[in-house]
């Protein structure tokens, strides 16, 4: 699918299309279908009633909550990579709230177009309005 967009993979790295044009369509033959019902696969997003919260999801949510509770008094970094505003109540707002309420928490936001931090936690934050791939190369 990535290659059909015009990208190339060179030396294990994804390269943007040489002509700069990303096709933004996927050939029908590359769409995966569910082996049970035959419907096209889709991402598990909180966009409608199809979001899956099964036993595995709930167990993971409990592990995450326990990790947060066990570490909230320690130095903790909330690293947000490319999180937008589709469902800010899932990642972004909790990260802001925990950064604000946990004494040693720090918030890092990398987002090419939507890097933002509220005034309340600005002194405990770094925001980069940059391409994540370019920033990670600079580390
Ligand atoms: Zn199905």
Notable characteristics:
single chain, 3 helices, 139 residues, globular, alpha/beta, 3-stranded parallel β-sheet, 5 strands, binds zinc ion, two-stranded antiparallel ribbon
Describe this structure in words.
This protein folds into 2 domains: 45 residues, no CATH class; 69 residues, no CATH class. The protein has 3 helices and 5 strands, in the order E-E-H-E-H-E-E-H. By secondary structure, it is of the alpha/beta class. It is globular. The site of zinc ion has 4 residues, from loops.
* Sheet with the most strands, sense and barrel status: 3 strands, parallel
Mean pLDDT: 92
Q: Describe the oligomeric state of these chains in a short phrase.
A: single chain
Total domains, how many? 2
Helix amount, in percent? Answer: 10-25%
> How many strand units?
5
Total DSSP helices: 3
Strand numbers in spatial order across the main sheet = 3-4-5
Alpha carbon gap, first and last residue: 29 Å
Shape field: globular
Give the bound compounds: zinc ion
């Amino acid at each position: 699918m990535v290659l059909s967009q015009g990208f190339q993979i060179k030396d294990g790295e994804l390269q943007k299309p040489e002509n700069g044009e990303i096709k933004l369509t996927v050939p029908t033959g590359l769409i995966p279908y569910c082996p049970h019902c035959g419907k096209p696969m889709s991402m598990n997003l909180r966009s409608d009633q199809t979001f899956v919260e099964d036993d595995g999801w709930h167990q993971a949510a409990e592990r995450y909550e326990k990790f947060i509770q066990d570490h909230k008094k320690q130095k903790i970094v909330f690293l947000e990579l490319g999180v937008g505003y589709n469902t800010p109540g899932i990642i972004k707002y909790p990260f802001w709230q925990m950064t604000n309420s946990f004494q040693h928490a720090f918030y890092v936001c990398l987002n090419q177009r939507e890097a933002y931090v509220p005034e309340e936690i600005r002194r405990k934050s770094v925001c980069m309005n940059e391409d994540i791939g370019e920033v990670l190369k600079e580390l």
